[in-house]
Structures are given as structure tokens and as C-alpha cells.
Amino acid sequence: MATTTPTRDAYGPPSGGSGSASNGRRRAWRSRLWRFDDMASPYAYIAPFFLIFGAFGLYPLIYTGWIALHRVELTGLNQSEWVGFDNFAKILQDSEFWTSVSNTFVIGVISTVPQLLVALGLAHLLNYKLRASTFWRTVILTPYATSVATAALVFALVFRADGGLLNWVLHFFGAGNTDWGNGHWTSKIAISVIVIWRWTGYNALIYLAAMQAVPTDLYEAASIDGASRWQQFRKVTIPSLRPTILFTIVISTIGSMQLFGEPLLLQGGTLGSTGGSEHQYETLSIYLYNYGWKLGHLGPAAAVAWAMLVLLLLIALINWIVSRFVRKSAA
User: Fold this and answer.
1) In sequence order, which ranges of the chain are alpha helices (DSSP H)?
2) Of 244, 228, 237, nearest to 116 (Cα)?
3) What is the pLDDT of residues 75-88, one digit of tens each?
4) CA-based nearest residue to 304, from 260, 249, 248, 269
5) Model-wide pTM > 0.85
């Protein structure tokens, strides 16, 4: 039986015609889409951050700077008068502003230093194998989960001059009643205790996470060389945690500049909103609150906000210089 062998041209695409032209245009269009997607996708992924930052970060910052250069009252937000840098000159010539700066700095130091030292010690203890380690980690984080208002109100009862828990305890040791809220140093110590209680566990968990990232080979080598646990902590743990420690210092500094709830609720009422009878624990946030919401002068209040920003930038610059010096000395 005779058979015919199909030729090669029987299955080949037609030469020329509209089909090949449309396929070429489709491939070119897909290639352009692919190149556009390759270039535009990274910007699309990061666009939400910049949109949110622009709406809730950059715009309020620029608007606050605009208000700082005008006379704007809380009762007439639609009326403004250009005053230039008069608002800045007004707060810089106010002795109460410098008192609040001093109080903020002192409270920040006496709360940040013990807080980070205690957090470092707790993290070192939790880094060892303990029974119910998850329970203890949850316990030290509980104060951070407590609201500022709750913590401040509870400690306000502890530090009360009449019938306070702390004075009741000190009475058994022969100490007289201390008016914690009205003393220049005792009021700052009381506020610092609230800050230390709330933030120590948070920083301890940050240090613990950094400690668990330290290679165990370093500890084994130090142990073989005869180093004790204290020597391992000083020579291995602390150098490995140096970037984390600098990070917590910066974060704690920013937090101390924003102290508001603790001093406001320590005594409450008029005394709390003015930072004490003699402004002995008035922070920059309380000072800003008085100008903006009690007096209704939004121009000086905005100037205070920008002064706080400048102070934070100066502190960040100092931290950067110190960290750079530490890195060079370590190298």
C-alpha cells in the first residue's frame, strides 16, 4: 500500500501575514510591561510608607513650623499674624522654659541610667537556662503593657505625703514623712521610679534578644581560657551589645524628652498641670501643654515643639560622636 510522507512545509507557520505581526506586537508589549514592572514595583512597595509619613509626620512638622512663625490663638485658628522669630525669642527669654529644660534633663538622666543598668542585669540573668523562662520574660514585660495613666495613679498613691505606702514603710525605719511631690529632688525621683518601673522590662528583652545572638563559641573560648562569668560578661557580652546599648540610650533619651503623663498625674489637678507648686518637676511637654492648651497661645507652643526637636538632634549628634569614638577605640 502506497503512503505519502508529509512535507515539512505542511506544519510550518504561514510565511508573513497578520498573525506573525500581532505576535510580535504582543511580545513587544509584554517586554515593555515587564520592564515597567521591574522599575516601578520597588517604588510601589515603599509608597505606602512615604504617603503615611507625609500625611502624619512631614506635614504636621511643616505646619508646626509655620505656626511657630505666627501669632495663632486656640480660640481663633483661622486668624494668624506673622511675627517671625518672636515666639522663639519669647520662650528663650522665659526662665520657666529653662527650668523645664533642666528638669527634663535631670529626670532623663536619673531614670535612664538605672533603668538600662537594671535591664542589662535582668537580661543577663534571663540569658541563662531558667525554669519557666517564658513566664519570667512575660512578667518583666507586664509593666510595659500597663498604661501610663494606671501606673502614674498607682505610684501617686505610693508617694502620697499623708498615708502613702512608701512613707508608711519608711516610718518603721525611723524616717519621717517625706513630701515626695513638693520636694525639688524627691519629686524628680518619684517620676523617675515610674519611668524605670515601666521601661526596664522592655529594654531587658531587647538586651536579651541581642545576647542570644552572640555566638556561643566566644563564651566557650573565654571559658577555656579560665574567664569567670563576670569576666565573660565584661569582655564578651558588653562589647557584643555595644550597638544595642547605644540604640536603647537613644530611644530612652527620646522618651525622656517626651515625658508627660507621669509628671501630669503625679499630683494631678492644677499642681500636676503646672509641674508642681514651684515648677520643680515641670518637663518640656508640660510646659508646651500649658502654653498650647491652658493659655491657648499656639505660636509659642509650636516654638517649644521645635526647640524639643533641636535638642533631640543635638543629643543624637552627641550619641553619634560618642558611638563613632567607641567604634574607633574598639578597632
Assistant:
1) 18-53, 59-68, 86-92, 95-126, 133-145, 148-158, 165-171, 184-212, 216-224, 229-232, 238-240, 242-257, 261-267, 269-274, 284-289, 298-330
2) 244
3) 888 888 899 899 99
4) 260
5) no
